[in-house]
Amino acid sequence: MKLSNYFLPILKENPSEAKIKSHQLMLRAGMIRQSASGIYSWLPMGFKVLKNIEQIVREEQNKAGAIELLMPTIQSADIWKESGRYDDYGKEMLRISDRHERDLLYGPTNEELITQIFRDNIKSYKNLPLMLYHIQWKFRDEIRPRFGVMRCREFLMKDTYSFDVDKATAEFSYKKMFLSYLKTFQKFELNAIPMKAETGPIGGDLSHEFIILADTGESEVFLDKNLLDIDVNEVDYSEKNINEIIERFSKFYSATDEKHDVNEFENNVSKENQLRTKGIEIGHIFYFGDKYSKSMKALVNNKEGKNINPQMGSYGIGVSRLPAAIIEAKYNGTFMKWPKTVTPFKVAIINLGKNGDEADQKSNEIYQNLINANLDPILDDTSENPSSKFKNFDLIGIPYQIIIGSKLKKDEFEFKEIGEEKLILSKEEVINRLKEIYNIDK
RNA sequence: CGGGGCAUAGCGCAGCCUGGUAGCGCAUCUGGUUUGGGACCAGAGGGUCGCAAGUUCAAAUCUUGCUGCCCCGACCA
């Protein structure tokens, strides 16, 4: 993409309504624009980030054995009346009615709908276990939306729902998602710490929040530093590995301030491993048994030919919150550096030349080479001042830059990982290095 | 929903107190000079001053009502 053809409205100054750095950066870097309180449009740059995040979440769900489907944003009130939540949910639920004055609602979550789909189509234990998920927009009419996409009213969420014959298998489904979340967040270069959580209105007795550490987080968290060093990248979804990794995580202390136990923290965690910091919730998993399968009469035949209510769980990731969460974790106030899995473009070419000169020619040449190598580049071909280009790209946060000015010889390219020292490389070296970084076959 | 604040050009703001036909910086457009960390010169475009009513010869400015947005609190992925 050439910047001169792109839609990237950058702001030099912080809009006054943005109070936290992720909100400021997303506005300034032309990622989002507010349309109403807590409701945002995603501009091209932000949309690319969002889609990349969505894709990583999707891939890891698939690996964990969950199957994707898509449920609508608008739901009938009937199923919510069945489960009893039509009255319980309160004003957070956006209620609407159609021309026939039938009660509808903009879905704040999907337990009812997935249970309905399940009960209408699954009748046998042979189809279990089953994990279904979708990535869909939701609406919760928050009393006070704030912090940009961090706490908004319309948001994109990944929801998985698990169905099992008994509690033991349901717990295994829960553990699979537990691992899937750890792996997903590690791909965003985030340290997401699982913490025991309240089950809240969803109900049930087993629940974890996944919290990433960021100075600007909203809740205070306490944890054992050992939790930061557990690598799950190489762990697969075999039963043995899942149990092992979860055991490893549960060995170490972690709690949000609401659940914090000072004595346990002081006694069971060594002084040098005690970490007290701030966190942002980015995922939440629940096991809630037959709460919905019972109230909504979802039944399957078990081995003995008896009807039983399947055991269920639900597992959410705040997809549209993640760009902001990643920024909170990574933006230092001067520059942003997107994880390479998420970055809107894989590499930025900063052309400091002008029309037709050598730098300009070199820029266009390597731009074509990068496109051919599947290394999705953005080429700054505008006539802005160099300093202005540098500032803009510091803001946008594409992790790798190729800077091409008149300083260098014909076969020299300046390659820079944002925040690191620059290197002088040949064109081939630049391209090969990027292929290596992004794991693209030669 | 309680408490506080704001609403003037795309963004940041001044003007309001003391009423007299709307201004600054950035951004945008044209021409020129620049070009390695937010350039310079000259010119230009862009605002029914959130909406409605009232007071007045005259309202961005005073009064009332409404709407939107932001902040603190309770609530939440």
Task: Give the structure's gist in a few sentences.
By secondary structure, the chain is of the alpha+beta class. Helix content is 32%, strand content 26%. The chain has 13 helices and 21 strands.
Overall number of domains = 2
Count up the helices.
Answer: 13
* Rg (CA only): 24 Å
CATH class of the largest domain: Alpha Beta
What does this structure look like?
- The protein is an alpha+beta fold and 442 residues long.
- It has 2 domains: 21-330, Bira Bifunctional Protein, Domain 2 (BirA Bifunctional Protein, domain 2, 2-Layer Sandwich); 345-437, 3-Layer(aba) Sandwich (Rossmann fold).
- The chain has 13 helices and 21 strands.
- It has helices spanning 21-28, 44-63, 77-83, 85-88, 111-121, 167-187, 239-250, 262-268, 291-295, 322-330, 358-372, 386-396, 427-437, and strands at residues 32-36, 39-42, 67-68, 74-76, 94-97, 103-106, 130-139, 154-164, 192-196, 206-213, 219-224, 254-256, 274-289, 300-301, 307-308, 311-318, 347-351, 377-380, 400-404, 413-417, 422-425.
- The strands form 5 sheets. Strands 3, 7, 8, 9, 10, 11, 12, 13 and 16 form a 9-stranded mixed beta sheet that branches. A 5-stranded mixed beta sheet has the order 18-17-19-20-21, with helices on both faces.
- Strand 5 (94-97) and strand 6 form a beta hairpin.
- Helix 2 runs antiparallel to helix 6.
- The mean pLDDT is 93.
- The structure holds one RNA strand of 77 nucleotides.
